[in-house]
Specification:
Layout: E1 7-11, H1 15-25, E2 29-36, H2 41-47, E3 53-61, E4 64-73, E5 93-96, H3 100-109, E6 113-114, E7 119-121, E8 124-130, E9 136-142
Length: 144
């Protein structure tokens, strides 16, 4: 039996910057940290990545979790452009808020880039922004 959604995960080139954004700016907290060294066959088997090594953290954000990884091995190319949300795969994470205009202003002041100002539609107000790594973070407030 599936109980529900537990967490989403993001791979980042800078774990500390990512943790700082999702804790200090968004308001989450570090639940636990973990990682593994290169040459850990169980981690390679589980991730499907040969020669993997990483540091990671599980962050509690409201009632859910966000897992963030920084892989030191194998080496990878840096992202050169922002991934559009119409590409197949996971497109964004969404955070439910109670004062979307206030959160939008607070996060914009903290340096978060947004596509537009919050927009209302079908019983909710929403807006898409980007975290420091360019991942899309939606804010949504439900009405009624």
């Amino acid at each position: 039996m599936i109980k529900g959604f537990h967490h989403a995960a993001i791979s980042t080139p800078d774990l500390q910057r990512c943790i700082q954004f999702y804790t200090e700016t968004i308001g989450g907290q570090v639940a636990w940290e973990f990682g593994w060294d290169e040459g850990t066959p169980e981690a390679d088997a589980f991730t499907g990545v040969k020669g993997s090594a990483c540091r990671a953290a599980m962050l509690k954000v409201g009632d859910s979790f966000l897992e963030v990884f920084e892989f030191s091995s194998p080496s990878q190319e840096s992202r050169t452009e922002l991934r559009p949300v119409n590409l197949h795969g996971i497109t964004h994470i969404c955070l439910e808020v109670t004062d979307i205009q206030g959160e939008y202003e607070r996060l914009k002041q903290a340096g978060m880039a947004f596509n537009t100002e919050p927009m209302s539609q079908d019983g909710s107000t929403l807006v898409y922004g980007r975290d420091p790594d360019g991942n899309v973070v939606e804010l949504i407030e439900f009405h009624g």
